[in-house]
Amino acid sequence: MACEGVLLGMGNPLLDISAVVDQEFLNRYDIKLNDAILAEEKHLPMYDELAAKHNVEYIAGGATQNTIRVAQWMLQIPGATSYMGCIGKDKFGEEMKKNSTAAGVNVHYYEDTTAPTGTCAVCVVGGERSLVAKMSAANCYKSEHLKRSENWALVEKAKYIYIAGFFLTVSPDSIELVAEHAAAKNKVFSMNLSAPFICEFFRDVQEKALLYVDYVFGNETEARTFAKVRSWKTANVEEIALKISALPKTSGTHKRTTVITQGSDPVVVAEDGKVRLFPVIPLPKEKLVDTNGAGDAFVGGFLSQLVQEKGIDDCVRAGCYAANAIIQRSGCTYPEKPDFQ
Predict the structure, then answer these.
(1) C-beta of residue 57 within 8 angstroms of C-beta of residue 42
(2) What is the pTM of this model?
(3) CA dihedral in degrees (178, 184, 188, 191; nearest 10)?
(4) Are 43 and 31 in contact (CB under 8 A)?
(5) Which one of the listed residues 296, 313, 314, 339 is annotated catalytic?
(6) Burial class (CB in 10 A: 0-12, 13-18, 19+), 22
(7) What is the per-residue pLDDT across 214-242, written as a single tens digit (0 to 9) for each?
(8) How many helices (H) and strands (E) does the chain have?
(9) What is the C-alpha separation between 340 and 114, in angstroms, rounded?
């Protein structure tokens, strides 16, 4: 059984402002479906426009936080997971604390007094999503917070650590501290490619972190961007997954496993120089509500079994189960209890 504090996540906590929009809205703000970007000046009016929509929803989000909340839901053991990130001292921050604590996650937020809690515009068209993050306080996380004894205790207690690639834009020194600790103590360290822009514009810090990563997650678009940036001359996701698994690794205790999701196509798992494909659970189009959080949920399901030392087949099955549950609901939310067997 998984014990208290077995899984730790660190990342950028963002309050999702989610609404169904139309193609004209996407065109006006120059955003694409199935993409995740950081907000620029031209995107700023979007947040008020979304907030004014009658169908708007506010959901505690941020990639790592989504994953940790889903893993917590799958495990059903209070406090099995913990999470760190930076929020503002404001209404949205309070909402986030309430949300995450209610989900059973042990949250240790760094509260910044100078910036508001970060938000993410989730623009949904035909069930597909486009994400535009306004980082604000999420950008202010400092490794000093991590080093405080009550927070470092969460690192010491965890046997598995997960960080989405988005955190590379905020606190690479925190990632390095945690990664080195995981390598020294033979813990399992996992990360996510997270978005094409991370693979393109944060290549150096990503490469440094990857040296420590035991499980690499991502989707097919991110994998292809990762390959393109390295001039790998292939768009074949299976080949790319194998190449990622074979990249240099600092710690030799665990071999590197690469797990790439491809929407409704099979999940690609590469380890030990071999590739395996796992079909996802089919979902009729009319049952799809939105894909926001699907990748995060997959990782949450996967990790919920990994921390119980289950094999790769069970981990992928749980990942597919969690993703399937989440895409039938708005945002990264889930039924009261899982019925995963």
Answers:
(1) no
(2) 0.93
(3) 40
(4) yes
(5) 296
(6) exposed
(7) 999 999 999 999 999 999 999 999 999 99
(8) 13, 14
(9) 43
